[in-house]
Amino acid sequence: MTDQYTFRNPVTAYEKVSPPKQHQEEPGLDSELTPLADLGEDTYRGTGRLEGRKAIVTGADSGIGAATAIAFAREGADVVLSYLPEEEKDAARIAGIIEAAGRKAIRVPADLKDKKACRDLVDKALSELGGIDILVNNAGKQVAQKDFADITDEQFDHTYKTNVYAMFWLTKAALPHLPAGSTIINSTSIQAYAPSATLVDYASTKAAINNFTKGLAAQLAPQGIRVNAVAPGPIWTPLQASDGQPTEELPEFGHATPLGRAGQPAELAPAYVFLASAESSYVVGETLNVNGGITSP
Ligand code: NAD
Ligand code: MG
């Protein structure tokens, strides 16, 4: 059976998707993407790299977060899945895959723009898993606007609350409970360095996440807590089909990368597993770019 270790050409490892024009209301569902994305359901093979670990993954119902949650479970971790209430259908499917791997999947639907919801998420992880040693701040909001004047105050506020404030609140709530050896992984983006003209608000949150990661990493390293980030390039997920890209640009999504295609969420999961696992013990404050070859600093 093919899995992430199968020797293959990365250009053709996945079909070059040319998603037809489509539109979903935010936050969008994986189950309604055309074509469907690969979350590693049939391909991710665990090798015990996270045996006994306890993880919170935000945005774990779909896309990169779901692929990460599946991989964590197959590597031996129990997982708390955070997502929005309207994403229950996607979340239930991912929880089923985690349970089939013999691990706990605790579903916690809540809007993380709310400080209390962030604290409650951490409390729930502590009570259900008996601790936390991996925090993946991955939930994100991205709404493209061609005209700067169309970025409403509300959009700006919600993008910063989801992408930056929730990361701050979750980190603050989790930190007192994280033992030495724990890892925090934040989802940033190629947008942190190379902002699209249509993503001024979103891209600037990703620059903030990158910087936050490096500063916090320096502060927490002496306590034995490692903080790192993953910077995806163009990855086929519901974020992109729910106004993350201008609809008419979807068919070309990811084609300009050196690999010539968009990435699949399943191709991101190994980066999160590496940073979560003790095998990356000397990797601190790093941003791991997984972007099909786009030049990054
Ligand atoms: P996705 O839509 O599958 O995941 C984003 C998730 O964020 C949603 O599933 C939702 O559960 C969560 N979310 C959004 N608003 C929330 C809120 N207010 N409260 C709680 N949860 C909320 O898309 P994805 O592409 O897998 O996104 C995951 C991360 O990867 C995001 O941080 C995104 O910025 C980042 N990223 C994605 C790409 C890409 O091309 N897809 C590129 C670079 C970075
Ligand atoms: Mg989702």
Summarize the structure in words.
The protein is of the alpha/beta class. The protein has one domain: Rossmann fold (3-Layer(aba) Sandwich). Helix content is 33%, strand content 12%. It has helices at residues 63-74, 88-100, 115-129, 153-174, 200-220, 238-244, 269-276; strands spanning 54-58, 78-83, 105-109, 134-137, 183-187, 226-232, 287-290. Helix 1 (63-74) packs parallel to helix 2, helix 1 (63-74) crosses helix 7 and helix 3 runs parallel beside helix 4 (153-174). The radius of gyration is 18 Å and the shape is globular. The mean pLDDT is 98. Bound molecules: nicotinamide-adenine-dinucleotide and magnesium ion (MG). Nicotinamide-adenine-dinucleotide is lined by residues 27-28, 58-59, 61-65, 83-84, 87, 111-113, 138-142, 162, 187, 189, 232, 234-235, 237-240. The site of nicotinamide-adenine-dinucleotide has 30 residues, from helix 1 and helix 6.
